[in-house]
Amino acid sequence: MPKFSVILAAAGKSSRFRDPNYKKPFALLNRKAVWLYSAELFLKRNDVKQVIIVISPEDKEEFLAKYGPNLAVLGVEVALGGAERSDSIENALGKVNSDSTHVVIHDAARPCLNADLIEVVFNASKANPAVIPAIPVTSTLKLSKDGSAVDRTVDRTHLYEAQTPQVFERELLISIFADRGDLKPTDESQLAEELGHPIAIVKGSVFNIKITSKQDLAFARACLDSQPKPKLDSPIHPFADDNLFR
Questions:
Q1: What predicted TM-score, i.e. pTM, was given to this entire model?
Q2: Does the pLDDT at position 15 exceed 50?
Q3: CATH label of the domain that carries residue 87
Q4: Binning pLDDT at 50, 70 and 90, where does residue 215 land?
């Protein structure tokens, strides 16, 4: 029976989000912090044995002050990030339970993840050492070296947009981080790919957006409203209204 440890990546600078009060994983979406949406989904699964959120060291004091009750009730652990994304994930990987068979890495800024997509990715991980969700690129792509003029149109055939959650066998993920050297991947599947490991793809979701700018919050609200509402026997925790901490 697989046992999954989940790492929520939330240690980025959020430089494009431009909010004086929040970084994007901690922004409010329908009166709840963005990172809580995916954390709660993972914690509803019996095969998820651990959830770790990795944050920037500079956010530690404020994060613990705001979300200490959530962390305690949900049992979410905290790891501190590093200079690059790969450094942050490696730090969190050091906290993963030794009896976990798989490690899941999910962008905390993707709050519109749904239980069906988690199920698909987790099931695929039983037969594949590394699995990612992805969607075909449908827009026309232009290459511009200076951002002011088109150099050429890029063929979108066979191009996919990678998403998270990405799932890896724990020993595989440990080994690729041990071998990464100076590589600075933008996601963990790129690191595995660079080191020659096969990556399986499952169908992602157009709703599984990553919040980058404040405008994305409005789109995320629409995505959440379009999804079936989960049936809860009781609230997963008593601190859902994070607007109290603003």
A1: 0.89
A2: no
A3: 3.90.550.10
A4: confident
Structural domain harbouring 43: 4-126+165-195+210-245
Give, for 32, the enclosing helix (H) or strand (E).
strand 32-33
Q: What's the rounded Cα separation, in Å, for the pair 44 and 246?
A: 27
Q: In 3-state terms, what secondary structure has residue 68?
A: helix
In the chain, the amino acid numbered 115 is A
In a domain, 143, yes or no: no
Q: Which residue has 């890495």 as its token pair?
A: 105
Burial class (CB in 10 A: 0-12, 13-18, 19+), 238: exposed
What's the total number of domains in the chain? Answer: 1
Distances in Å between the Cα of 125 and the Cα atoms of 101, 122, 157, 211 are 10, 5, 26, 26
| CA distance linking residue 183 with residue 100, whole number of Å | 26
Strand partners, 55: 10, 80
208 in Cβ contact with 111 (< 8 Å) = no
CA distance 221 to 30: 7
Residue 124's H or E segment, with its range, is helix 115-124
DSSP helix/strand/coil, 143? strand
